[in-house]
Write a structure and sequence with these properties.
By secondary structure, this protein is mostly helical. Helix content is 76%, strand content 0%. α5 crosses α10 and α6 runs antiparallel to α8.
Length: 280
């Protein structure tokens, strides 16, 4: 009888892309990278489109302030500070909107099956929670250190819509709860992950500036080259941060709610499927 139970329990996939155990910050970042690799086409393509649309908003705004990426880091004047706050809100919006693709990769890693195609209701919920998440991120950035609370406040909402099949209000409550439970560990992981990619992007930007000095390009060509490279760097960062959110939601449920034990028990009675991860 024990042998039968053990055999049934092994039906639960043990995919090393997303181990069902408490993870360190480094392991969560590695897991996010693996999830991006597995859904690279969908995640990076969507991230690139959204990053391009972001620049379509920010480029005219920067030019109205006579600020160009190719000129180097700008001073924190009043107008530029507002631009930074708007950029922070757009980044939060994009990361949340990438949640369904990242959440799908996480579901497949845990259950071995891709989630069903999202319905219009889920798409509307994702759009709504993204807009809601962008507001405290932008407002927090405008106020300075308040961003540390505003950015992680609703960040896990879209992955909750996808993984746990929640509606917008339920997903927002769930995101806040997971972000601030356990000594605010979820919020801290999101903030540290963001700053990690911010440093990578800034170093890349400085490298591009150094490279431009070696290229005899007109000012207009140099600026558009910088914009294109920034879009590429942002796309990779946004996809990775969305994947971090998906991994963090699963890991938080393992750490705080015993998801791994529940899934192992459930797998003894039926084949693993995405429904196992739905809200219960």
């Amino acid at each position: 009888m024990e042998r039968a139970a053990s055999s049934a329990a092994r039906r639960l996939p043990r995919d090393e892309a997303l181990p069902l155990r408490p993870l360190t910050l480094g392991e969560l970042l590695d897991t996010a990278s693996e999830l991006v690799r597995r859904r690279a086409v969908v995640l990076l393509a969507a991230a690139a489109v959204l990053a391009l649309l972001e620049q379509a908003v920010l480029v005219p705004w920067r030019l109205s302030l006579d600020i160009r990426l190719s000129d180097g880091p700008a001073g924190l004047s009043g107008g530029y500070w507002l631009l930074l706050a708007a950029g922070a809100g757009l980044e939060a919006l994009i990361i949340v909107w990438l949640g369904p693709a990242a959440g799908g990769a996480a579901v497949e890693a845990v259950t071995g099956k891709a989630p069903p195609r999202a319905r219009m209701r889920a798409g509307v919920a994702t759009a709504l929670v993204g807009v809601v998440a962008a507001v405290p991120a932008a407002l927090g950035a405008f106020l300075g250190p308040v961003w540390l609370l505003g950015y992680p406040l609703f960040g896990l909402a879209a992955v909750a819509v996808t993984i746990e099949r929640r509606g917008p209000l339920g997903a927002l409550r769930r995101a806040t709860g997971l972000a601030f439970r356990g000594g605010m560990r979820g919020a801290a992981v999101r903030v540290v992950g963001y700053f990690s990619w911010l440093l990578i992007r800034f170093a890349f930007y400085l490298g591009l500036l150094a490279g431009l000095e070696l290229l005899p390009l007109p000012d207009v060509a140099a600026e558009w080259l910088m914009v294109g490279m920034v879009v590429a760097a942002n796309a990779l960062a946004y996809a990775s941060l969305a994947a971090l959110d998906a991994a963090l939601l699963i890991e938080s449920r393992v750490r705080l709610e015993g998801l791994d034990l529940w899934l192992t028990g459930a797998a003894r009675h039926r084949e693993p499927d995405p429904e196992m991860l739905a809200a219960r």
